[in-house]
Specification:
The structure is a single chain. Helix content is 41%, strand content 20%. The chain is built from six helices and nine strands; from the N terminus they run ααββββαβββαααββ. Helix 2 (24-44) packs across helix 5 (159-173).
């Protein structure tokens, strides 16, 4: 049995499990099966390795300094703060409509940003920045695709997830409906175990305290 350590060995393992090493048509589709599995990972996997920190500098020379580009691998925002300001204050999220109403209410006077919103591939700050602030973002990132990042952190952490994910995507194409349940169980098991590991690795880092009416128990 092939040991899965990189993109090529993953494809070899999928070929072995499909038992179609003489059938060139499904073998040629294996990269597509892996690509489809990765799309599913990005929608269903939630582990700490998917969290990334990035910084951006407000450009006062830009005609709209309140807009900053999001990282190319951005999926969803976790936290935004001004890392160049004492205390590194966090910004609060507002919807686009709420941000427009806020701007109108303060006559769009420039100042230290307090709020943000996300749309498209940009983040918008309000008030419009009055200085070249450094904005720190903690966000959920996409998994680096194996086709261009070989190997990536997920293959190293969970080769079984990749294997069963690709096999599950292969079954409808190969019209092997009987295999969907088999590959699906393997995929779901690996996915759930990883998500549970993500929860425990995040929340078991220290003792939990419960705050009630200002008291710590």
């Amino acid at each position: 049995m092939t040991q899965i350590v990189d993109y090529a060995s993953l494809q070899s393992a999928v070929t072995e499990y499909l038992a179609r090493d003489q059938d060139t048509t499904p073998i040629a589709r294996i990269p597509t099966f892996i690509q489809l599995a990765e799309a599913k990972f990005n929608r269903q996997l939630f582990v700490r390795q998917m969290e990334q920190r990035a910084t951006a500098l407000v450009d006062l020379g830009f005609s709209e300094p309140e807009f900053l580009s999001l990282p190319a691998d951005f999926q969803s925002m976790r936290r935004v703060r001004l890392s160049s300001v004492a205390g590194k204050p966090c910004l609060s999220f507002k919807s686009g409509t709420q941000l427009d109403e806020y701007r109108f209410g303060i006559s769009d006077v420039a100042g230290q940003p307090r709020y943000f919103t996300v749309f498209g591939d940009e983040i918008e700050l309000a008030p419009t920045p009055d200085a070249a602030y450094t904005v720190e973002m903690v966000y959920r990132r996409s998994i680096p695709p194996l086709a261009t990042n070989d190997p990536n952190w997920l293959l190293t952490l969970a080769p079984d997830l990749y294997l069963y994910g690709a096999l599950l995507e292969s079954a409808p194409y190969m019209k092997e409906d009987g295999r969907i349940q088999t590959w699906g169980l393997g995929f779901s098991s690996a996915l759930n175990e990883l998500n549970n590991l993500g929860l425990t690795s995040t929340f078991n880092a220290g003792p939990m305290t419960v705050h009630v009416s200002g008291q710590v128990i």
